[in-house]
Design brief:
It contains 16 helices and 14 strands. The protein is α+β, with helices and mostly antiparallel strands and 521 residues long. Strand 7 and strand 8 (422-432) form a beta hairpin. Helix 4 packs antiparallel against helix 6 and helix 6 (160-185) crosses helix 8 (205-225). The protein is elongated.
């Protein structure tokens, strides 16, 4: 491999938008950022994550799942009209919203777990803002060129070519935004049907409004605002600091080996000056989508996308030096190595203290090992995440798909019939939560001598009725229960309504009250 000298490494004219030396006022005009395309293992990982996340978002509504002839066959569907949420084999009813709450809790704890171990990995790789900005940048580079070409085009006067290129770019951005909004509405209705309705102009107005809103927000956030969303609008940069500790991995410039910077190492060494590994090429600044200089230390704007690591590693490879001048590192390891480089704080950073005479790193330096992130906090978050998941899975596997609810008539609470017996009225709700029709047996248990009759069912009073319930539906019955007066023991008696599906052995009970006059003769 041909090893380059420091002066042969191209120095990019890149300035951080908010460098430590020249902090911008809060209300300063935005400086445009033209990130250079990076290459390396982290950039490849980001391509993979982008492909997976975009694939999941755009393709999921098209997945089919056979639930029989009485339920939709879309694998993931939020059916607002029928108040259902379908997720493959799982069906969630409104009263089971606690499952959704449990998933949100798992997402929150999972985010805490990831942040406490590997920093803002969510922001750098999987956040929708990051993914769509990456997608928009792909379009921008394909049309206008890489960093230098885009900067030159931006500074050039308006010509037919510039107008054409900008128009094509923004049209494609709007098309991506429209596809984003279009994919979103498919989660709320049958996808093939809704797609045909959208293109024929017969879809509901709310569908077009949703597409328009998401088209606008995707275009503005991903194409125009970009890093400003992360810096000024997102609350997570402010929160994530509480999730980090000295053993959390973050993207770090290892100035204990990089300082002092010099582009003329041979001359500096000949003059007896200290020289670090950083050749001040600004490659890390040029590739940063947030436009910051990681060499200024940890910053709110940094989303830890690690593209600066790829850029710096590429330069180190050309110079024949070890990778890792910018790397994922923990604060504990950084402080330990800095203490070696500056002799415990008694002198400026001296690269000679961290290397042996042969040029290799000294034995006393701390290096990252995967075991360092597995600490008490990690196990606590992981345990909480697993506990919530186990409870949800157990609840899903053991939940009943047959439910019963009973409301006693308030006025009147009871009626005295012509034969002297007392009658109470009830509204009985049978809930069949499977996409198949059922015959449910409604039974009266307790209440000596009691019988019931159901409005709409032509059957003489009895203690048991067979009721047909449609698939995935709530059946509301008007039920009257009567008891001979001589068998009434107290003004208020408890008894049970019991329902059962003999085909599936599922059953449910509800304890109700039977009211009668306090003074009977």
């Amino acid at each position: 491999m041909h090893v380059l000298d420091q002066t042969q490494v191209e120095r990019l004219e890149a300035e951080a938008v908010n460098s430590a030396k020249t902090r911008q006022p809060l209300y300063a005009a935005r400086k445009k950022i033209f990130p250079k395309r990076a290459s390396g293992r982290f950039r490849q990982f980001k391509w993979l994550v982008m492909a997976i996340t975009l694939g999941i978002y755009y393709l999921t509504p098209w997945l089919r799942w056979d639930r029989g002839s009485f339920a939709p066959d879309q694998a993931v569907l939020v059916d607002l009209a029928n108040r259902r949420f379908y997720f493959f084999f799982i069906e969630i009813w409104p009263q089971e919203f606690y499952y959704v709450a449990g998933l949100l809790m798992m997402a929150g704890v999972g985010l805490f777990l990831v942040t406490s171990t590997v920093g803002r990995a969510w922001c750098g790789y999987a956040c929708p803002q990051t993914v769509w900005v990456d997608l928009f940048l792909v379009v921008e580079r394909a049309i206008e060129g890489d960093r230098n070409a885009r900067m030159k085009l931006d500074a050039a006067p308006w010509t037919a070519r510039k107008l054409f290129l900008r128009s094509i770019k923004h049209v494609i951005w709007l098309a991506i935004g429209m596809a984003t909004g279009g994919a979103w509405i498919f989660y709320f209705a049958d996808t093939p049907t809704l797609l045909a309705e959208v293109f024929t102009g017969t879809a509901a107005p709310v569908a077009y409004v949703t597409i328009a809103v998401l088209t606008g927000t995707t275009y503005v956030f991903g194409g125009l605002m970009r890093e400003q969303v992360c810096t000024y609008m997102c609350p997570w940069p402010r929160i994530q600091a509480a999730m980090l500790d000295e053993n959390s991995l973050t993207v770090t410039y290892n100035d204990w080996r990089g300082e002092p910077r010099s582009r003329h190492a041979k001359k500096a060494l000949a003059a007896g000056q200290l020289v670090g590994d950083c050749v001040d090429c600004n490659a890390c600044v040029a590739v940063c989508p947030m436009g910051i200089d990681i060499r200024d230390g940890q910053q709110l704007e940094c989303i830890t996308c690690a593209l600066c690591i790829d850029a710096c590693d590429g330069v180190m490879d050309k110079l024949g030096r070890e990778r890792g001048l910018i790397s994922y590192a923990t604060l504990a390891d950084y402080n330990a190595n800095m203490a070696v480089a500056n002799a415990g704080g008694t002198s400026p950073v001296n690269p000679a203290l961290v290397r042996t005479p042969s040029g290799s790193f000294a034995d006393g330096l701390a290096h990252f090992h995967l075991s360092k992130i597995f600490r008490l906090r990690t196990y606590i978050y992981l345990g909480a995440w697993l506990a919530i998941g186990i409870v949800l899975v157990y609840s899903l596997l053991t939940r009943e798909r047959l439910d019963l609810n009973v409301l006693h008539d308030r006025n009147p609470q009871f009626v005295t019939l012509s034969d002297g017996s007392i009658r109470n009225g009830y509204t009985v709700k049978l809930l069949n939560m499977i996409p198949e029709p059922r015959t449910i047996e409604v039974m009266l248990q307790g209440l000596d001598g009691g019988e019931m009759s159901i409005v709409g069912i032509d059957q003489s009073p009895s203690r048991s009725f067979a009721v047909a319930v449609e698939p995935d539906r709530l059946k509301v019955l008007k039920v009257f229960v009567r008891q001979p007066t001589e068998l009434i023991k107290e003004p208020v008696q408890s008894f049970e309504f019991r329902i059962a599906d003999n085909a599936s052995s599922e059953s449910a009970r509800y304890t109700a009250s039977f009211n009668a006059p306090e003074n009977r003769k």
